[in-house]
Hints:
Elements lengths: L3 H29 L10 H4 L2 H23 L8 H17 L1 H4 L4 E2 L4 H15 L10 H13 L3 H27 L3 H11 L12 H22 L2 H17 L1 H13 L2 H13 L16 H15 L3 H16 L5 H14 L4 H33 L3 H5 L1 H14 L12 H21 L12 H21 L13 E2 L1 H13 L6 E3 L4 H8 L2 H7 L30 E6 H10 L10 H7 L5 E6 L3 E6 L2 E2 L2 E2 L2
Parallel strand pairs: 3-4
Antiparallel strand pairs: 1-2, 4-6, 5-6, 7-8
Helix pairs in contact: 1-3, 1-4, 3-4, 3-9, 3-21, 6-7, 6-23, 8-9, 8-10, 9-20, 10-11, 10-12, 11-12, 11-14, 12-14, 12-19, 17-20, 17-21, 19-20, 22-23
Amino acid sequence: MFSPSAIQRQRFQKVALIILFLLLSVALIITWNTPATGYEASIYRSTPLILWVSLIASVIVGIALVVVAIAKDELEQNFLWKIGFLLVFMCYTICLALFIIRGYYMWCMTGDPASHIGWIKETINAGHVPTSIIYPITHICLSELVFFTGLDLVILHKIVPLTFGLLCVLFMYVLAKALFANYGGALLAGVVSCCLTFGWYHNLTPNGLSNMLIPFALFLIIKFLQKREWAWAIPLSAIIILYPVFHVLPAIVLGLVLLTLWIPAKLTEAIQNLREKKVHILKYNSEDLRLVFPFLLLLSWFIFWISSFQVFGYTIKDIYDTVALEEKETKGAAFLDQISYAQNYGYSVIEQALKVYGVQALLVLLSLLALLLLWREFTARGQNKSLFSFYGPFFAISFMMGILFIFNLPFGPFRFMIYISMLGTLFAAYFLSYFLVDRRSGNNPLLQKTSLKAPCVTVVITLLFLASTLILYPSPYNLGTSYHTTQSEVMGMTFFYDHRDVNVPVTGITVAPGRFSHAFLTPEEQSVQRLPMYLEDRIVPWHFGYDRHHTLAAHYTDEMNLILTQRDRQIYLDIFPDMAKFRFTEQDFEQLDYDPGISFLYSNGDFDLQKVTTVVQGGLIE
């Protein structure tokens, strides 16, 4: 039976939950009715304040309800923690879907998603994936989805990543449930998974989608080890065959997991033997070798698949050129150059590192603290072996990230940060749950008080959520250019493709004509347009050359098509205002209107197409 104080507490919690759900509903309606009307450099600044207030309040209350129920061992008696978890999951969903709620037309058409949309269209039209695609699963599945649902890719390229992001939380929860001895730890893992710490949520890319399925692959590995049944061997074999065709990087990580899961247990055994001064070869049984066949299956299929593409030869050559011939700059050297470049312009590298990677640093810290607990429990009582085994992949991935700095491969070391975050989430959940339910701190009465431990854990998880939310979308806070692609920009680019003279080169600032052409033109039309993926060395001169000449046309010997978007006008106004005096100012854009060497061809508010001529009023420009 509940005491009168417990009944009053539950009554207060129910009222608070009702208020929060109502507030969140009103905030969503207001946000939905105030869509973006143009390019937004920061979704945080453009979103109504009431939504942020309701999200923060809901997250804090939801986390607190779950944490208190775990700390007081009330998961079976009190059902309100389920409502709290639902509230946290709703906030997670709203944050992921915010750009959809705000009415963003498309997302990241200046990046990889544009190319993948084009390849999906090509797959639909041709009936097969392009032969050059090394990871065709995404394009095949999306093509089938278009056929079955009739939905346009403009909608699907936003909904599909959102769906995978939601499924990732479910997969993390079932993985934690298979690993943890107590239900409270698995529940905390689900809550921490809602803290947006993984990244890779919004872009329609095979790497991003396959990353969200990694927890499911790990779950199959653990169940295969625990159950020793064909019912788990078959789906594990299927996922192993799937991943090299899904994307290379998660397949590599999956291989590292299969290869290193046994190391922590055997390492502790070896250390114990050294302490007892026993020198003999470590013993292996059938259980220790159970993952050998899955690893060999993955390795053989991976090599067979990847070696059938030219990129395999290019990658091997890059490794040889970097290590043996030292002809190419390493990722580490390029990274140090970026740091030096940013510092020369007055930007604090440490500040940006804390903003972008502070959450991962906190997860790593909690993981190291959990290592001490898991090591003690495993060596003393043999408990939590499955969870403890994941320190093998954890340190293997960390080591590989360091090694990648000395190479110049198509992918950098930070691409593997998401896997550290996923494993760190499991370790952090274990440490926090241990901290909440530990009853053996008899010599320290302060640590036995739920009134102290529950707020501490709530603060830590809330901090993870808030810090991750602030970098979920590119914005001036993290010095990122928003991937918002407006309908006006798409209309402008299609007008440009339909009316341009293909012999006239293109210039601009941030426009990516080749990427857009992948999404909106057929392969035959792309070959006619012959557009570069990015402008790179074709970017207009700083200040449009007005610091040296009275017209932009003085910098060119032939006619040029100049494309400017609202993104170009805001990047040095909102994101890099301190760089405006070195790059582009508002006055530079205003002076374009009076430049005698420029004529306007098309404008719709977010997109301007202009022609840079080399003759002004019948005379040559000097």
